Amino acid sequence: MANVALLQGKKVLVTGAARGLGRDFAQAIAEAGAQVVMADILDDLVQKEAAELQQLGLKVDAVRIDLADAVSIQQAVEQAAESLGGIDGLVNCAALATNVGGKSLMDYDADLWDRVMNINVKGTWLVTKACVPYLKQADAGKVINVASDTALWGAPNLMAYVASKGALVAMTRSMARELGQFNICINTLSPGLTLVEATEYVPQERHDLYVNGRAIQRQQLPQDLNGTALYLLSDLSSFVTGQNIPVNGGFVFN
User: Fold this and answer.
1) What is d(CA 221, CA 37) in angstroms, rounded to the nearest whole number?
2) Which one, of 127, 142, 123, lies nearest residue 11 by Cα?
3) For 122-151, what is the mean pLDDT?
4) Which range among 5-19, 74-88, 91-105, 118-132 shows the weakest confidence by mean pLDDT?
5) 201 annotated active-site
6) Which of the two residues, 1 and 107, has the higher pLDDT score?
7) Predicted TM-score of the model (pTM)
8) CA distance 123 to 26
9) Which residues of 131-143 are buried (b: 16+ CB within 10 A; e: fewer)?
């Protein structure tokens, strides 16, 4: 269990929280003392996961969000802020990752490219934009944009996803320049290939490539990212902004 004092009193929205990394982030953040709203397009599942965490005595709630719909995003953020009594932390984890790989640049079609960019980049921007008024009120807001280390080494046959995650890194740096005046810190967390539902489609040879290429040669688990996420949401990182932090066991260095 995380240090229960680290995020005591914090109010955090986590997108993509029905499963995978987002689900694990939500639990770790709540265990560190924060109130958490879990947001996902999979409404039934995110409500179920929130109920399970509530049974553990954690302060969590859930809302539906669709990153492809600006109205849904605004409504979800407003609902989260009402439930939490404000927002001082945001984890943008929701993304389209499943079934976007295995295609060469010649095989990608424009519709899939647009869908990935619309959700992974535009959606993340819109969620952050909707949260900024609340983050300003907090006077010490924290944002984590979850990217991917694929943007650092250029994973092949995954072009739209890689491009979208590279865009998040660049967008985060621009946001940091604008939001710093409000004492809002925004950083990118870039995981390596992690064992979650969204990576089940990844061929075994890609998993082997990661394990063998890491300084720490093992599979990456969701909990390997929690410490960095908690740090970036806590007061310990109050002078850290605009950074991209890879957490991948040393597969690629920033």
Assistant:
1) 23
2) 142
3) 96
4) 91-105
5) no
6) 107
7) 0.94
8) 19
9) bbebbeebeebbb
Number of Cβ within a 10 Å radius of residue 110: 7
Reduced DSSP (H G I as helix, E B as strand, rest coil) percent helix, strand, coil of the chain, to 5: 50, 15, 35
**Residues 58 and 84: beta-carbon distance below 8 Å:** no
Which single residue is written with the structure tokens 């609902």?
79
Identify residue 1 by its one-letter amino acid code: M
CA 238, CA 94: separation in Å to the nearest integer? 24
pLDDT of residue 4: 67
Q: How many CA atoms lie within 13 A of 185 on its CB side?
A: 19
CA angle 115, 175, 67 (to 5 degrees): 25
The domains of the chain, with CATH numbers, are 11-247 (3.40.50.720)
Six-digit token string for 52:
């399970």
C-alpha 18/C-alpha 27 separation (Å) is 11
| Average pLDDT value for residue range 160-167 | 95
Q: What is the CA radius of gyration of the chain?
A: 17
Secondary structure element (H or E) that encloses residue 244, with its range: strand 244-247
Q: What is the pLDDT of residue 2?
A: 52
Quick: pLDDT tens for 23-37. Answer: 999 999 999 999 999
Among residues 108, 134, 161, 231, which one is catalytic? 161
How far is the C-alpha of 141 from the C-alpha of 121, rounded, in Å?
Answer: 21
Strand pairing partners for 62? 38
Q: How far apart are CA 191 and CA 147, in angstroms?
A: 7
AA identity, residue 220:
Q
